[in-house]
Amino acid sequence: MSQPLMPMATAVWLIDNTSLTFKQIARFCGLHDLEVQGIADGTVGQSIAGIDPTANGQLTWAEVRRCQDDPSASLVLSKGAKPEQTRTKGPRYTPVSKRQDKPDAIAWLLRHHPELSDTQISRLVGTTKPTIGAIRERSHWNIANIRAQDPVALGLCKQMELDEAVQKAAIRAQKNAPAQPESAPAEDAADSGADVENPADDSAASDL
C-alpha cells in the first residue's frame, strides 16, 4: 500500500492539523496539488470529515514533524507506527460547514489588518500560506466570488483571539520600525555662516 486509506479524508485532516505543504499532502495521499488546495479553500471535499492518520497507525507525529521542518521531504507511510497524542502547531481545525468561508475571512483580514503576518492569519482562520498569498495577489481561482467578511462573525475565530493577534502584530511592527533620527541642535549663528547685523553699520547709516 503506497498511500493511506481514505486519502481524501486523510488530506482534509492533514490540512487542518499540520503545516505540511500542499505538495507534501498531495504526494502522500495520491492527490493532485490543486485538489489539496481546493480542500484548503473549502471548494473540494466540503462534506468529508477528516481522518487522523496518526490515530490509525498509518503515520507518526515524528514523521509529520520531519516533513514540516523540510518542505522538500516526503511523508513515509508506516502501518505499524504507534500514534502519539501531541499536536504540532499548525492551522486550527475548521468545521466542514465553515470551510467555504475561509477565503472571505482571509480577504477581510488582509484588508482591515494588513499588519498581521501570514502565520497569524493561518492560525486564526485555519488556512495555508499559499492560499493567503493567492488572495493577496488576487490570483486565487475564485477571486471574483470572494467577499471580505469578518472571521469572528463567520465563527472561524473568537474576538479575543483576533484582538490578541492584532496586538502582537502592533508590538512587532513597533519593534521593527526604524529609529527616528534626533533633530540636530541649532548651530551658532557664527558657525552656520548666518549673516549677523553689524552695529557699526547701523551707526554709520544713522549719521547719513
TrEMBL record:
Residues 78-98, 171-208 are annotated as: Disordered. It comes from the Bacteria. This is DUF1013 domain-containing protein. The lineage of its organism: Bacteria, Pseudomonadati, Pseudomonadota, Alphaproteobacteria, Iodidimonadales.
